[in-house]
TrEMBL record:
Keywords: Transferase. Residues 89-220 form the GST C-terminal domain. It comes from Smittium culicis. One of its GO terms (cellular component) is cytoplasm. It comes from the Eukaryota. This is Glutathione S-transferase omega-1.
């Protein structure tokens, strides 16, 4: 029988999935009271097809029965509930959409490669990741050179979308024993990373980096 709370949103997530982390952070930062149900992404229970016929994680089941899927849209849903998560101006929202597109097209492909890709490819992947964080630093300087978060002093959907992916970059490099990513001259990015890595909702979204690495690397 499918597990859900009939009185509040139920989030079906995983402690090792970066997409699920986005959902946890977004719902938490929006102040949404929700029920947690953890799903083994490698061995989903039979009842989960009643919640998400496609087997997607994360999924949010609303009390009325509607299922919300895809981390990007769940993040938008959370921001629609609490608009503090949206950038304040039309220009900032434009910058956010462009940045999220860059993350999906240029940064996300490195995720699976550094975590579960062939060992012989990880050195080249690390070099591309170095390029991406330098480009990211430039983008952050263009959007808001002095802020802590991407858009200044307030956490937005842009931060939530990027944060778990950056965590995977650093896990992969460290666990493969590769040279650390060079942060020289990347002060804007480093300030952002240090601040966001201490965010309580981020820490809530996973058990430990060792658990993430062990689970993902064992399913290559």
């Amino acid at each position: 029988m499918a597990q859900f709370n009939p009185d509040k949103p139920t989030l079906y997530s995983s402690r090792i999935c970066l997409f699920a982390q986005r959902a946890v952070i977004a719902l938490t930062e929006a102040g949404i009271d929700y029920e947690d149900v953890f799903v083994d992404i490698y061995d989903k229970p039979d009842w989960y097809s009643q919640i998400s016929p496609q087997g997607l994680v994360p999924t949010v089941r609303l009390p009325g029965g509607k299922a919300l899927t895809e981390s990007q849209f769940i993040v938008y849903y959370a921001a629609d509930i609490n608009e503090k998560l949206y950038p304040k101006t039309p220009v900032e929202r434009y910058d956010t959409r462009q940045l999220m597109d860059y993350i999906d097209k240029k940064m996300l492909p490195n995720y699976s490669k550094i975590m579960v890709g062939p060992v012989e490819e990880v050195v080249a992947v690390r070099e591309d990741m170095q390029i991406r964080i330098r480009e990211l630093n430039e983008k952050l300087l263009e959007i808001n050179p002095d802020g802590v978060y991407i858009h200044g002093d307030s956490l937005t959907i842009a931060d939530i979308y990027l944060l778990p992916l950056i965590q995977r970059y650093y896990i992969g490099v460290r666990k493969h024993g590769l040279p650390a990513l060079d942060e020289t001259g990347l002060e804007r990015f480093v300030k952002w990373k240090k601040t966001l890595f201490e965010l309580p909702s981020f820490k809530k979204s996973f058990d430990s980096e060792d658990v993430i690495w062990t689970a993902l690397s064992s399913h290559k």
